[in-house]
From TrEMBL:
InterPro entries: HIT-like, HIT-like_sf, HIT_Hint
Name the UniProt record assigns to this protein: HIT domain-containing protein
Native source species: Pseudoluteimonas lycopersici
A GO MF term: catalytic activity
Every HIT domain range: 42-111
Length: 142
């Protein structure tokens, strides 16, 4: 008689949990706000156990992720009117599949370079965090 391990369950990586704030749950992803007041910055984390790469999602999940990236990009564009939107799925430090959607301005601290490793993250002051979360949640589809 063989024993099979139970299927893996989705769990948010501890570093993502520590560095982001929850905004909402979409069809596939957790939508989270990066705790860096230097930039309006969203992170989408597909709720798929052990997903590390886009190819770990099936075709329907990849299409849904694309739709949810579009939703996050429109959310930032409509709320902040940025000069540019950056979208990236790197995973070099946090292996769990997650996608960054970042609103960029020509005068932001890292412009025109990528945001990673340019300036230290600036955590949101509590009052600003509450306002930013409310602003974004109010714009999410009901």
């Amino acid at each position: 008689m063989s024993r099979h391990a139970p299927p893996a369950r989705y769990e948010l990586h501890p570093q993502l949990a520590a560095e982001t704030h929850p905004l909402g749950t979409l069809g596939l992803c957790e939508l989270r706000l990066m705790d860096d007041a230097n930039y309006p910055w969203l992170v989408l984390v597909p709720r798929v156990a052990e997903a590390r790469e886009l190819v770990d999602l099936d075709a329907a999940q990849r299409h849904q992720l694309t739709d949810e990236i579009d939703l996050a990009a429109c959310l930032l564009r409509d709320a902040f009117r940025p000069h540019k939107l950056n979208v990236a799925a790197l995973g070099n430090i946090v292996p769990q599949l997650h996608v960054h959607v970042i609103a960029r301005e020509e005068n932001d601290p890292a412009w025109p370079a990528p945001v990673w490793g340019r300036v230290a993250a600036r955590p949101y002051p509590p009052e600003t965090l509450v306002e930013r979360v409310r602003l974004l949640r109010d714009r999410l589809p009901k």
